[in-house]
Design brief:
Elements lengths: L6 H10 L12 E5 L2 H13 L8 E4 L2 H10 L4 H11 L5 E2 L6 E4 L4 E2 L5 E9 L8 E8 L16
Antiparallel strand pairs: 1-2, 3-4, 4-6, 5-6, 6-7
Helix pairs in contact: 1-4
Length: 156
């Protein structure tokens, strides 16, 4: 699911609009598309569960990513953009359909904090149906997180 040309800038622009404790009104941006193989695997899983099929174009708003990766974990926007680009690669594989729709890059990459991570994209397939939304991105294997800065935000 490669990113479209200019998608890195769109992702960055959306993430820069948020502020701690304030959910800004941010427009969804089309940032990429699932490959035919990824889309077919996801739609087979959805069909088996009796769920409506999705289209391949992926939207990004970013509020959950901002809260979880930037505010809670302390990552920089550039870290998140790199993570999204990796997770949405054409080589990413569809994960089992138990509780979520997700794809993961099976190739570990070195992040800026000394980890070897496999980046996972979580897709939300209902709100903007038929287009999935990139809801979250998870760095599997990030045992070393950036130092948490004082931002006046509590995850409690």
């Amino acid at each position: 699911m490669p990113l479209y040309n200019g998608a890195r800038a769109l992702i960055r622009a959306n993430l820069e609009q948020f502020q701690p404790r304030v959910k800004a009104r941010v427009r969804g941006a089309a940032i990429g598309a699932l490959t035919d193989v990824q889309l077919d695997a996801i739609n087979r899983n959805r069909q088996a569960k009796g769920l409506p099929l999705i289209s391949g174009e992926v939207l990004f708003i970013g509020w959950h990513v901002y809260k979880s990766r930037i505010l809670r974990d302390g990552y920089r926007i550039v870290d998140v953009v790199d993570r999204i680009e990796s997770a949405m690669s054409s080589g990413s594989v569809v994960l089992g359909p138990k509780h979520m729709t997700a794809i993961e890059n099976p190739t570990a990459r070195a992040d800026a904090y000394g980890n070897m991570v496999r980046d996972r994209a979580i897709l939300e397939c209902t709100t903007h149906h038929p287009r999935p939304e990139l809801f979250s991105v998870v760095p599997k294997g990030d045992t070393i997180k950036p130092q948490q800065k004082e931002r006046g935000y509590s995850s409690e």
